[in-house]
Amino acid sequence: MREARSGMDAGRLHVAIDGPAASGKTTVARSLAQRLGVLYLDTGAMYRALAYLALQTQTDADNEAALRRLCESEAICVVLDSNAPLGFRVFARGVELDDAALQSNAVNAIVSTIAAHPCVRDAMVRRQRAVASHASVVMAGRDIGTVVLPDAAVKVFLTASVAARVARRREQLARAGVDVTAHRLKEEIEERDRLDETRAIAPLVPAPDAHAIDSSAMSPEEVVDAIATLVARA
User: Fold this and answer.
1) What is the largest CA-CA distance in the chain?
2) pTM for the complete prediction?
3) Strands 76-80 and 88-92
4) What is the DSSP string of 209-228?
5) Angle value at C-alpha 48, between 19 and 133, nearest 5 degrees
């Protein structure tokens, strides 16, 4: 029997926002969740937390068996909290990780490799679905509409030009106290796109029924307005 994951199951609203790195998913999803009065989860933070923990434990990003053990040890914990700066709290072995830790250059360098492992994605998807099974949620990531919540009431594929994404990520990192050049960020974003789009498991692609929104020339508020309209019509 197919597992029930309806976007409006038991009165719960599920909104899936997918897109490449620095397309604005985090800002938009968090603001949309606040407007709708529902919970928000950026699934990328879960993979980043595992990448952070791999660095702390000197676990090779290519060692799938060791990463599986880290996942199965329940070392990564996500607590939804609308009052937290991120909209949720992420813990690695009991230590809360802030945005600076999750967005560090070292984490950025290995997170796509770690996220490509089938066992890692399986473990994360189970936890993400568990969140959605208990609450209305706006969930942002790279495979929400295609894998995690394929029956979400509203699916959005949020894109932006590379130039716009570089500018946004640089500003985000600056707020977290991380200094990186635009040239390096461009290289990292383009490589992240390549890895996300070509991985064998759950590659970054829009769901067939997703609404595509190019946010390059849009403010976050304009994007939120557009998605809120889609939700109202769902």
Assistant:
1) 51
2) 0.84
3) antiparallel
4) TPEEEE-TT--HHHHHHHHH
5) 70
Q: Residues near 227 by Cβ (< 8 Å), separated by ≥ 6?
A: 15, 17, 28, 32, 154, 156, 211, 213
Asked if 143 contacts 210 with a C-beta cutoff of 8 angstroms, the reply is no
What distances in angstroms separate CA 111 from CA 39, 53, 55, 217, one per listed residue? 24, 11, 10, 28
The CATH H-level (homologous superfamily) assignment of domain 9-233 is P-loop containing nucleotide triphosphate hydrolases (3.40.50.300)
Domain definitions of the chain by residue range: 9-233
Residue 6, both tokens? 């309806």
C-alpha torsion angle, residues 43, 157, 38, 48 (rounded to 10): 10
Encoded amino acid at 133, one letter = S
Taking only the tens place, the pLDDT of each residue in 195-206 is: 899 988 889 999
Taking residue 93's Cβ as centre, other Cβ atoms within 10 Å add up to 14
Q: Per-residue pLDDT tens for 32-64?
A: 999 999 989 989 899 999 999 999 999 999 999
Q: What is the pLDDT of residues 65-121, one digit of tens each?
A: 999 998 888 778 888 787 887 778 899 888 999 888 998 889 989 998 999 999 999
Q: What is the dihedral of CA 103, 109, 113, 119, to 10 degrees?
A: -40
Residue 224, class by beta-carbon neighbours within 10 Å (0-12 exposed, 13-18 middle, 19+ buried)?
buried
Q: How high is the pLDDT of residue 179?
A: 81
Q: Which helix (H) or strand (E) holds 178?
A: none
C-alpha dihedral, 129 to 133 to 135 to 140, nearest 10° = 20
**Cross-strand partners of 187:** none
